[in-house]
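Structure request: Fructokinase, Pseudoduganella buxea.
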Amino acid sequence: MEQAVTVFGEALVDDFSTARVVGGAPFNLARHLAGFGLPVTMITRIGDDANGALVRDEFARFGLPETGLQIGPGEATGHVQVEVGVDGSHRFTILPDQAYDHIDSAQALAASQASRPSIFCFGTLAQRDPRSRAALHALLEQSQAVRFLDLNLREGFVDETIVFDSLQQADIVKVNESELQQLFKWYCHTCPDTVNMECISVDTECRAMMHNFSLSALVVTMGVRGALYLSADGAHVADHGTGLGTSFVDAVGAGDAFNAVFLLGRLRGWTMEQTLARANAFAASTCGHAGAVPADLSCYQEWLTPWQQDSSTTFSGP
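Returned structure:
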């Protein structure tokens, strides 16, 4: 039986004024995992509105079961206003009091218990309201799954108390460079420059933080410079990425794409060297199309086919 994954958090719609695009980091992750053929339960909440219909369409397109999808009558489906600058930069306005702030604990527990996941994924944005935070805590208390935290800090919604609690709850934590620097400021004696992730001071502070929060592994993504994996048993694995190529469109959701292949590699028994290389390559490829997930779902099999040809691998690391 294929090992299952549960993903908790926001499903929302990015409004670019000229187009509405379904997103939300947890929902991006869930869709990628489903695209790769893994059984996934997405626990989120939407409203009975036009944006909610767009989210449900994506559930259907990726073959995601609606067992974890809650619908709140009169609530607004998660909505983010996106302004695109003349230089191509994006400014996001994350609206308050959205449906994903009202995730019901009892419904969430029923969905998670039915799926019996081996990996449970969560972030921090959907914890901004006490109701959804309580639902997450209830799920974490009853789950024996490996807990994967994508910190995914969003400007204006960074609560150190929530971050501290999330780190305590996690087994594996994934951050980008700027998030790692923020963790250094909060929890470490020094803030080494992450331009050189191979330096001793970065490794020392990362491992001290991992020890303090009892983490089994820390994953740091570095954009075009690749990614770094550190484990509590002393492993230090780096992959320096593949670059972005010449067809760069945008980097929306690249981190979510990386996470999906990282988790796929864990479940399929790849070596960490293979896992990081494949995760970086897939993340880079998503920068070649608009939005976080592909329009053509056949691309997932195009990635899986060469990966499946080498089945004699074993996973290294917790």
